[in-house]
């Protein structure tokens, strides 16, 4: 590998380390003091970075909470593109949603989601984030030639799947919620043509 390749790799690692340090500072401060009591300057100082550096990694205070937004967004699209030819799209998406809901309900993630559920600003940010996820999923569905899905049907099914995730994430009985909602999604998918 060339010296410039080593430099680029090192630069990317340092950027990732800085982003991770900022996110960890934000998470810890938000959980210790409460989301509303912590400002951007508090997070930057705790992470030992300039405010401008923080904003080069995160577009807003809300984005600090949803550090893995892009990973979740890509996960939906990848569940479509990586499924086996004989796998049902709806069953693949259900498994993906179940995994996300399990993650959100885990011991490590639960305090963050409790904080999100108590904050109108964070709930609003989550809603806008989920719209982006639905749009990304719809593009993946429409792009898959094997699915033969009209774009409007792909958009509708994507919105249904994202709504199923949202309902299950906030449910006391997530599996039961998915058991009720996914047959409806499957029926809509079967009626798409």
From TrEMBL:
DNA-binding region: 39-58
Keyword Transcription applies: yes
SUPFAM superfamilies in the cross-refs: Homeodomain-like (SSF46689)
Range of residues in the leader sequence: none
Molecular function terms from GO: DNA-binding transcription factor activity; transcription cis-regulatory region binding
The HTH tetR-type domain, residue ranges: 16-76
Keyword match Disulfide bond: no
Keywords attached to this entry: DNA-binding, Transcription, Transcription regulation
PROSITE patterns: HTH_TETR_2
Protein's UniProt name: AcrR family transcriptional regulator
């Amino acid at each position: 590998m060339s010296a410039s390749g080593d430099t680029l790799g090192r630069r990317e690692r340092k950027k990732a380390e800085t982003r991770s340090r900022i996110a960890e500072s934000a998470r810890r401060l938000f959980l210790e003091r409460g989301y509303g009591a912590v400002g951007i300057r508090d997070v930057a100082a705790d992470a030992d970075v300039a405010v401008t550096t923080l904003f080069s990694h995160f577009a807003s205070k809300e984005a600090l909470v949803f550090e893995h937004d892009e990973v979740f967004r890509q996960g939906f699209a990848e569940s479509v593109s990586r499924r086996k030819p004989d796998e049902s799209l709806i069953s693949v998406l259900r498994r993906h949603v179940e995994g996300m809901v399990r993650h959100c309900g885990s011991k490590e993630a639960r305090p963050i989601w409790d904080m999100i559920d108590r904050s109108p600003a964070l709930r609003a940010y989550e809603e806008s984030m989920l719209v982006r996820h639905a749009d990304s999923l719809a593009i993946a569905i429409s792009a898959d030639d094997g699915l033969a899905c009209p774009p409007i049907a792909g958009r509708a099914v994507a919105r249904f799947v994202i709504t199923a995730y949202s309902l299950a994430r906030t449910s006391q009985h997530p599996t039961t919620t998915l058991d009720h909602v996914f047959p409806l999604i499957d029926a809509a998918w079967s009626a798409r043509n």
